[in-house]
Hints:
The longest helix is centred in the C-terminal third of the chain and has 33 residues, at 437-469. The model has no long low-confidence stretch (mean pLDDT 91). By secondary structure, the protein is an alpha/beta fold. It has helices at residues 7-11, 42-46, 53-56, 64-68, 80-92, 97-108, 118-128, 131-138, 145-152, 201-211, 225-230, 249-261, 280-300, 325-328, 340-347, 360-368, 390-400, 419-427, 437-469; strands at residues 3-5, 14-15, 18-23, 26-29, 74-78, 157-159, 174-176, 179-181, 185-187, 214-217, 239-243, 266-270, 352-357, 373-376, 409-413, 432-435, 482-484. Helix 17 links the parallel strand 14 (373-376) and strand 15.
Amino acid sequence: xxxxxxxxxxxxxxxxxxxxxxxxxxxxxxxxxxxxxxxxxxxxxxxxxxxxxxxxxxxxxxxxxxxxxxxxxxxxxxxxxxxxxxxxxxxxxxxxxxxxxxxxxxxxxxxxxxxxxxxxxxxxxxxxxxxxxxxxxxxxxxxxxxxxxxxxxxxxxxxxxxxxxxxxxxxxxxxxxxxxxxxxxxxxxxxxxxxxxxxxxxxxxxxxxxxxxxxxxxxxxxxxxxxxxxxxxxxxxxxxxxxxxxxxxxxxxxxxxxxxxxxxxxxxxxxxxxxxxxxxxxxxxxxxxxxxxxxxxxxxxxxxxxxxxxxxxxxxxxxxxxxxxxxxxxxxxxxxxxxxxxxxxxxxxxxxxxxxxxxxxxxxxxxxxxxxxxxxxxxxxxxxxxxxxxxxxxxxxxxxxxxxxxxxxxxxxxxxxxxxxxxxxxxxxxxxxxxxxxxxxxxxxxxxxxxxxxxxxxxxxxxxxxxxxxxxxxxxxxxxxxxxxxxxxxxxxx
Length: 494
């Protein structure tokens, strides 16, 4: 029989020896889970005996508690009096400066049809995103040099357009692992979309379905893999899955079998994030948010508000893993070409792509391992600072080992913001390119329609660029059409 608990009873369990939390009016005993929580015990104990829904929901899929807590730890429901009190508390809580800023930005953002390029979409998103969400989405490793160089690399490649060619008919479509895509672009895996919009990854799924491109779903999505599959416009809509391999083979195998059963179309094995990069922008976000919470508390109760102390926190290190701590701390640190690829092959007949190849030597090893594709990527600059931009790795691969392009499909992601960026990659041999942050920004700012808008923008830019290059289909985009220069163009002022 389901238990019904009062808020007073839940509040009594607010220590590390007995820790209960409330999520969406349901009570959970997380005492035994405290030492295992990848984000540390501090964040859970902060909400011990209280409602933790607001901080829990945006970064956890709905089935996380079912997967990580045994049924006997699902204690029951808050009684009706308690549920009403919690609802009243949420409605009357004083908003922080950040929440008021976001509300004002949402009210004054431009109409969607006035967004002309991906940078303008990002500009809007940066205004409407919460401080926490923007810090997570935009953060990169160390001083963020690789993040910036990923985009700057495209400015070193210029075109050799061909003229006097018939271009009235232009087809930008392609296939990715045999799946048709309206343009040579796919959604590269990007986690925690619900930080930016309540519907999260489902916005991207439906937007991708409406525009006939393929979405790669992150292992660390904020919706369950089943919910994302259910959001497809039809059961035939393809989805790729980005796999962070768990160190326990049995746990990893269950994840693979789950997505196979849900009808996903390919597995992208992530190999560039065995440990977490140093993402200081994301790590720093809680410091600012705690200060804003203290400010709001002081406005409500000047006498009882917490006051920061000079020595506060000396006894406890900050959470250096940031928002994504739970995602990578259980990853397999001992993957190899000879062990991991055959293991994955034994689980599924789906195409396998290695995501996170960062040098020519590993591209060659991937081809020799018999995978179906490689994604040249440095995780959006979020892992090893000063790893080469993927476009530069693609260029080196074209020069040094062009035979690899005959053995596997090659993709890149990182820094792509224009249709001309896509075309440069295709001229050098990429089959398609992935974009991650732009889709997070689009769905955060305008939901599903934002996703559709940036695909339409890219399609328009790609077709225009192909025609001006003298190409009418993607097969006509060849290395002779692009040249790497050793000088840097001066940025234009619009």
